[in-house]
Amino acid sequence: MAHTRIRKFNTKATYPEQNLDNDLCQAVVTRGGRTVWLRGQCPQDLDTGKNIASNDPAEQTHKVMQNIRQLVEEAGGKMEHVVKVVVYLTDVRHREAVYRVMGEYLKGVFPVSTGLTVVALARPEWLVEIDATAVIPD
């Protein structure tokens, strides 16, 4: 792995009452490299700016994570270079669905993560927004 991950854990143990399987950690140490700061990604096409035609939180999260992967790759990195994600949800009841999908894209990565429930996002049809930071090693 490109970075040192401190106190790795899986959400199966942290949140046993929820059906989650996310690899996270308490801290990530990076050295050198190029930092990629991503804008909060929403369920829309990066090229057209059009929203996906779904009000399902899992489907929206797939698009968000695909956007994150695409941008990290365009910057010359891989998903394993993601060190932090911040998840914004408009409804805490979507948490399990969103985190399950996010976990598929971040399996074995162990980023640090912060999750927030907010009143609204920039567009009323958006249920999830995720911003990410990646550090691509030299």
Characterization of this structure:
The structure is a single chain. By secondary structure, the chain is an alpha+beta fold. It has one domain: 60s Ribosomal Protein L30, Chain: A (2-Layer Sandwich), CATH 3.30.1330. It is built from 3 helices and 6 strands; from the N terminus they run E-H-E-E-H-E-H-E-E. The chain has helices spanning 11-14, 57-74, 95-105, and strands spanning 4-10, 23-29, 34-37, 82-89, 112-117, 128-136. The strands form 2 sheets. The chain has a 4-stranded mixed sheet, with helices on one face. It has a two-stranded antiparallel sheet with strand order 1-2. The longest helix is centred in the middle third of the chain and has 18 residues, at 57-74. The relative contact order is 0.27.
Approximate helicity band: 10-25%
Mean pLDDT: 94
CATH third-level topology: 60s Ribosomal Protein L30, Chain: A
The total count of strands amounts to 6
Distance between the ends: 13 Å
Can you tell me the overall shape?
Answer: globular
User: What is the radius of gyration computed over CA atoms, rounded to a whole number of angstroms?
Assistant: 14 Å
Mind telling me the CATH superfamily name?
A: RutC-like
Largest sheet: 4 strands, mixed
Following the backbone from N to C, one meets helices and strands in this order, namely: EHEEHEHEE
Q: Could you list the spans in which at least 5 consecutive residues all have pLDDT below 50? A: none
Structural class: alpha+beta
CATH architecture: 2-Layer Sandwich
CATH class: Alpha Beta
Query: If helices are DSSP runs of H or I spanning 4 or more residues, what is the number of helices?
Result: 3
Strand order of the largest sheet: 3-6-4-5
Strand content: 25-35%
Task: Give the count of structural domains.
Answer: 1
